[in-house]
Structures are given as C-alpha cells and as structure tokens.
Specification:
single chain, about 475 residues, mainly beta, Neuraminidase, Immunoglobulin-like, 2 domains, nine-stranded mixed beta sheet, four-stranded antiparallel beta sheet, 39 strands, about 45% strand, disordered N terminus
Length: about 475
C-alpha cells in the first residue's frame, strides 16, 4: 500500500529565511510527497519499560531487542516488548551530575561477529567513549578520552553512520570558545573508525573533527541518501535542526540560529527553546522525528529528498512529559524514551518510560513473544507465495514483503532472493536481513518464527538504488521456490 503524508489541519507554519525555517504562526499545510514509511499510530502507545531513571541512549541488537542506557544509574538494560528489562552491563567510572553521566550508546555494525557495544559517558576528569563485548561487559576499553566535561553541554549522542564510521556529538562543555577552536574536540561532531582513530578522508587531516561551531549536539540521523542531520540545543532563543556537511561551520557562539553569513551554515529548522530543546533524532522514510525535552512533544519534519525540509508539525504534545530519545526499531515501530526524572520534569509513578508506537494499520500482538531463540537451521522447505509491495522514489524505495506458507507449519524460516540491480539495503524491520553480493537472506526474529500452514508472515526493508529497480523473481522460502502474487 502506498501512503502519502497528510498533516492535520493545524500545523506549525514556517518562514523561509536564508535557507532555514523558523516556527511561527499556525496554518493548514498541504500534503507533501509519497512516504517511504513513517505513518505511526500515536494514539496506540505500548509501554516497553517503566520505572527507569533518565533513559538516555537507545540502540538495537540484531535479534530486535533494545539496549537502553540510564544516565544517573550507569546501567545498560536490555528490553524486549512484553518482558521485564534485564540489566546487561554497568559502565564503570561514570560520574553523573547535572546533564552528565552515562549518555549515548551504539551497537557495532558488525555485532554478529564482534559482539561490541559502545558507550559515551562522563568520568571523573573527562567525557569519553568506551566499547565492550556484550558477553563480557566487565571489560571496557576506552577508544576516545580527554573530551572536556561539565555539568552542562556534554553532548553525548553516538551512532554508526552508513559508512561504518562512529559519529559522536560533543557539547562545548560550557566553554563557548571550544566550538570555534578546531584544535578542541568540544563543540563538534566527531567522526572516527570503530577503534577511535581518525579516518583518512576526514575534512581536517589527522583530526576527528567532522563539523564545528556547535553548542550542544543531541541528535544524529541519516536519510536514505546517506546525508547526516543533527539536532542541537540553542541558548536562549533558537534550537536547531542542521544538515551536516564535512568541514562545515555552524556558527556557535558567533551566532545562534540563522547567521546569513557566508562563513557559517544556516540551520534547516529553528524553534524557540520553549517549543523544543530537541534531543534524539530519527529519520523514517521522508520524515525526521525530533524528541523535545522542554517542548514535551515529538516534532515531525518532512524531508524533501534534496536536503531541504517542509513544514514541521508536532504530536504527543504534553502527553508523556519530556521526551529524550526517538529511534526506529527493527520491528518497524517508533520507540521513544521519556526524561521526567532528570531534575527538570514532573514525573508520574510510571516514569521514566520507554514507549513504542506502531505503524498505521498494525495489529498489536495479543501474546507475549517467546523468550527462547528459534532454531538457527530452518526445518524442511514449504511451498509458498510472496507479495512484494514497493513504494519508490528517485533514489530509494521500501518494500513490504508478505510470505504465505502453502505447505506444512514451520518454526524457523528464511526467505532468500537476488537483487538484479545495484540496490543497497539501509534498513529493515520484523526480520533480520543479511546480504552477500547480490544475494539477500531474511531470517525470522524470535517472536515471528512460527508460520502455520496457510499462514503469513510479513517484514519490511528500505534500500537505495540507481538505474533500474526490478522486483526480484527468485524468492525461496526455506530453500523452496515461491510463486509471486
């Protein structure tokens, strides 16, 4: 099914000024372009966890479970919907005060082979990044140390980009001069190899600095074309969403918000600080979601596909208090964390929470997913049919894939196919996908391993392409050829 993005009748109108957007009055907005994905049912939240204390970082493991970091308790928890959180690690040496503590968390793109998790935190003398194997979390190896720390402006968001490099948003640590000092790593977005070293193609030779002139970077997200977008706290007037380019200077502290100065890059969107304090960011299809702390809402920013933006709108306003982090889960649901126990919110008994919002049209599961891991070797094959429903734009597409099992019931399944063009996977949900050359294999998650006779199972994927984007023709369900419907 193809969907188009239609905002409600009252959404924030904006004023275009020097290439950016400033939130202003309210007026109707017309639909914008076809959605790859991103229609979520914000009226049907599910609670993945309650009783947490400032859940800050959120990242996903290949099995679909989530890792969440607690800023003040220095714990890393593993979340599975329908199950109680389990503690999998404690980060040693965390010193939490004000905005500092255990902050961002990231899962290695090669987790299936290296089992590595990365954490950004405040220690006694600095902010730093460590990594550890999830099966031996007591051994934590620093890969970056010496970032200036403070009770404010510690940044802390880390994420692996589509290039396999680790990106880190670092605040100015309350010293505004850091942001324009290229020799300082504060007030910057850093880009590094997984071992913490500087890639040779960084914009400044031998330096981790990827962009500068930032006050307090909070959100990092990439679109389907590999462009990096960033959410940033302003001071008294304007919070920002920026499109990040290598070597770009974003103006702080010379300017807050729009500069209209050739030395600096203007933000794409600015909000008043009362409306936003944008923390985590996620891109789903052609929408950027930004979790707002002081604004107590989730902002939606349409992306044009050419690096520009449409008119922002807001959902969840005031419903769950301060929102810290937003991320798309492998299950296709949008995950959001609250931050009401951070000293600036008004917590309720359930806080802090991790919430999940389903894609529109999703029927929530009625049973708790199983806790056991399905067989790694699927049982015998079954006759099958595949429906491949594509939503395509200039250089990317999503596919919703539905498999009908026309044979006997199976527990544990794979669906294989071969891409005929240069399609490159960028995201997937409700299944684990791997690729070798042009061959792709989708495998069940723990909760959708069983497909009864005559039953169906569905999953989705997102990819980039150039040239043609022909539908695969050689689907194989547990190594048995499928018909295409």
């Amino acid at each position: 099914m193809r969907r188009r993005l239609v905002f409600a009748a009252t959404v924030a109108a904006v004023t275009l000024t020097g290439g950016g957007l400033a939130a202003a009055t309210f007026a109707p907005e017309a639909p914008v372009g076809p959605l790859a994905l991103g229609d979520f049912d914000f009226g049907s939240p599910q609670v993945a966890a309650t009783g947490l204390e400032v859940p800050w970082g959120l990242a996903f493991l290949p099995d679909g479970s989530a890792l969440v970091s607690e800023r003040n308790r220095a714990r890393v928890l593993r979340l599975r919907p329908g199950q109680a959180p389990t503690q999998v690690a404690t980060i040693t040496g965390v010193v939490a005060s004000g905005e500092s503590g255990l902050l961002g968390i990231a899962v290695s793109p090669s987790f299936a082979t290296d089992n590595l998790v990365y954490a950004y935190f405040t220690a006694s003398a600095d902010n730093r990044i460590v990594r550890f194997r999830l099966d031996t979390p007591q051994t934590q190896t620093p890969i970056l140390t010496g970032l200036a720390k403070a009770d404010i402006h510690d940044g802390g968001r880390i994420a692996f980009g589509p290039d396999g490099m680790l990106y880190a948003g670092v605040g100015d640590a309350g010293n505004t001069a850091n942001a324009q000092n290229q020799a300082s790593r504060n007030g910057k977005i850093l880009r590094m190899r997984p071992d913490g070293s500087a890639p040779p193609d960084n914009p400044f030779a031998g330096s981790l600095v990827y962009s500068l002139g930032h006050r307090n970077v909070q959100g990092l997200a990439w679109d389907a074309q590999g462009r990096l977008f960033e959410a940033e706290f302003g001071q008294n007037t304007w919070d920002e969403i920026n499109l990040i380019v290598a070597g770009g200077n974003y103006g702080w502290p010379t300017v807050e918000g729009m500069a209209n100065d050739a030395r600096f890059r203007n933000p794409l969107v600015v909000w008043t600080t009362a409306e936003a304090s944008p923390s985590g960011a996620a891109i789903v299809g052609n929408r950027l979601f930004a979790a707002a702390l002081r604004g107590t809402r989730l902002w939606t920013v349409p992306l044009t596909g050419t690096g520009g933006v449409g008119t922002p709108s807001a959902v969840l306003q005031g419903q769950f208090g301060r929102l810290r982090t937003v991320a798309l889960g492998p299950d296709g649901w949008l995950w959001v964390t609250t931050s009401n126990r951070d000293g600036r919110g008004t917590p309720v008994a359930a806080d802090d929470r991790v919430l999940r919002f389903p894609p529109v049209g999703t029927t929530p599961p009625t049973t708790t997913p199983p806790t056991t891991t399905p067989p790694t070797t699927p049982p015998g094959g079954a006759a099958c049919a595949v429906h491949w429903d594509v939503n395509q734009w200039d250089t990317g597409f999503t596919a919703n894939v539905t498999v009908t099992n026309r044979g006997t019931a199976v527990t544990g399944w794979t669906l294989g196919w071969t891409f005929t063009g240069n399609q490159q996977l960028t995201n997937f949900w409700n299944a684990a996908l791997t690729r070798t050359g042009a061959a792709v294999t989708a495998r069940n998650l723990d909760w959708n391993a069983t497909v009864p006779a005559g039953g169906t199972v569905s999953f989705g994927l997102q990819a980039n392409y150039s040239g043609t984007n022909a539908r695969p023709t050689d689907f194989r369900f547990n190594n048995t050829a499928c018909s295409i419907v």
